[in-house]
Design brief:
single chain; about 220 residues; alpha/beta; D-Maltodextrin-Binding Protein, domain 2; two-stranded antiparallel sheet; 8 helices; globular
């Protein structure tokens, strides 16, 4: 998407690499083993799309910095959060939110969060030639693949540890619940597509890229 100049906001920086987190799950302090258990719960959401998704599931999205999540769950200000396994451990929500809801396939339940490593263009241009050469050699897709390999390994390790922990309950949606979830998310995606000034174009581009990747192209 970036290479095809479809993304805004990167015009004034040198992009070293772009990443995505793993898809997010819902981790909660109250017992959550099915979609209806989410109704009325206050769930920390990272941004408007996550907020719309959580609201569509019957919960109440709440915005707050990630480092404050665990404390606010403990105090009862919120009931849970949407995070992937890395965040669940890094921000210590694992200590207070013992119920995790994941998809029927075992993957994430909600969307992902984009991450970027960027440099000020003037700083990059002012580096010694060898420095620029080294960064150019490893930047872009090369670094993204390295990140993905490490990120996948850590997520798998933490997920396995959580599923084996008797103090935690990790639940997959049933097939019926997954179908219901997918239908709900379609309405969220359709609403985003309608509201975003380039929604139709971007969504079509994303779906095209996903199809190409799954086809091995």
């Amino acid at each position: 998407m970036f290479e095809k100049n479809l993304l805004r906001g990167y015009q004034n920086v040198f992009v070293v690499s772009l990443f995505l987190t793993h898809p997010y799950f819902i981790h909660a302090k109250p017992k959550v083993t099915k979609l209806s258990d989410l109704k009325g719960l206050k769930i920390r959401a990272a941004g408007p799309v996550f907020g719309a998704s959580i609201r569509a599931l019957g919960a109440v999205p709440v915005g707050m910095p990630a480092p404050a999540i665990a404390e606010n769950i403990s105090r009862g200000v919120i009931n849970g959060a949407a995070l992937e396994w890395n965040g669940h451990y890094a921000f210590r929500t694992k200590d207070v939110a013992k119920f995790t809801l994941i998809s029927n396939s075992g993957s994430g339940l909600l969307g992902t969060v984009p991450l970027a490593t960027v440099m000020n263009k003037k700083i990059f241009d002012g580096l010694p030639a060898d420095g620029r050469k080294s960064i150019l050699k490893h930047h872009g897709l090369e670094m993204t693949k390295r990140f993905a390999k490490l990120h996948d390994a850590i997520n798998k390790k933490l997920r396995t540890a959580t599923e084996k922990n008797p103090d935690h309950t990790v639940t997959r949606l049933s097939a019926d619940e997954q179908n219901r979830f997918d239908s709900i998310m379609k309405t969220v995606v359709a609403d985003w597509e309608k509201r975003h000034d380039r929604g139709k174009e971007l969504l079509a581009a994303v779906r095209s890229e996903v199809r190409a990747i799954r086809a091995g192209k």
